[in-house]
């Protein structure tokens, strides 16, 4: 029998709502375009209203909903507030009225140097929009590190759990698409600080850098016994999360793979194989590496797990669907449901699978059941923003505080040249989201450093400045038109505190950014 709910797992429902309209004003997707992928329907236990699954953590669902609504609400009110301010620009006492309105509605003042020019020329709404996005991001980031809203700091219970499953570290590479930014804390319900996360476009992670991180991990095991002793029989678990759309598979799948779900899965698996092969070629004997391929439905947040066999083989054409598991166990008592989940995992592997992997995958499925019900409770079974709805692009290395769906598009890079593909995808997305409406693309650049390493902060600052110059150079036309703005930040990874703001492209000539 599977163990009872592990203590690391994150802990009242409300009535389901009608699907909201898309942010771009177009109607929500509501019909299938492919007959081989099922859509939630009223008779489907996953989509229907009514009682939640017995394994669903109701309290945690409400907590996550509150956090999600609060943060996104701060970004989504910006346009309406700026419209009201725009209507005031020719009135007497405009600057004072604009500042009062911004402080009341947004909670922060607007840049005086932009407001002061309104009487000479038209109010620069593009700069004001970017400023407001950056200010809202900074407030969100500060609140994340000071109030710990997701409760995801280092979790010793989770660390003990994965070691019991046979792993000493979990390294996950989701797609950089903003619809997967919440994959760790929401879809999988894992403590974010105990999971190594590096997003890449199409989940096509950098093999060489992943090998370097593996080497560092194994070195610490040998030298320091962290996260466990080197002689312990555990492995480095590397996972990829690709994504697909059950409601509009031909258009809302992974842009990096042309909305081709099969290509997304196979490319992710090939990259995993490349990583393992690289480790074996350099260190022989498999060298403590285990691979796991996951898929995420960006409409319902249901996961699919390509269950590996005991010898590490993974079939990209076969998976265990969390929605099927939900439907099979929704009428059962919790312990009976857990028993069935474990058996489904064993059956899916053809009977040849390590029990530690059974336990780990079973826990992922159980955790995801709560997220499936989260989408049922608060989004009527499927998200209204079926496509992209990100609020800004995050470029560089870091962003520990971003764990919300469709808040940020990630472009993980150390140089623009090596990350050009990821960044180009993000700019293309924002041409539809923002530029098509005359709004700029807000880009937050982040590099983490370690204060324990001499010169680390200075190198991070130089990286920020170099990347900012390269971004403005690569998209020179957008930059000159005021359709691209950057905010530069660095953060000390040795301490749990907010990032430090270095400056932005909106400063003229010196403006303190709060």
From TrEMBL:
It holds the Pfam family CsoSCA_C. It comes from the Bacteria. Its EC number is 4.2.1.1. Its main location: other. GO terms for cellular component: carboxysome. Keywords: Bacterial microcompartment, Carbon dioxide fixation, Carboxysome, Lyase, Metal-binding, Zinc. Its cofactor is Zn(2+). It is found in: Carboxysome. It is an enzyme of class 4 (lyase). Residues 389-504 form the Carboxysome Shell Carbonic Anhydrase C-terminal domain. Residues 1-61 are annotated as: Disordered. GO terms for molecular function: carbonate dehydratase activity; metal ion binding. InterPro entries: Carboxysome_shell_carb_anhy (IPR014074), CsoSCA_C (IPR048620), CsoSCA_C_sf (IPR043066), CsoSCA_cat (IPR048539), CsoSCA_N (IPR048619), CsoSCA_N_sf (IPR043065). It catalyses: hydrogencarbonate + H(+) = CO2 + H2O. The keyword Lyase applies. Residues 53-145 form the Carboxysome Shell Carbonic Anhydrase N-terminal domain. GO terms for biological process: carbon fixation. Signal peptide: none annotated. Residues 158-388 form the Carboxysome Shell Carbonic Anhydrase catalytic domain. Belongs to the beta-class carbonic anhydrase family. CsoSCA subfamily. This is Carboxysome shell carbonic anhydrase. It comes from Candidatus Synechococcus spongiarum LMB bulk15M.
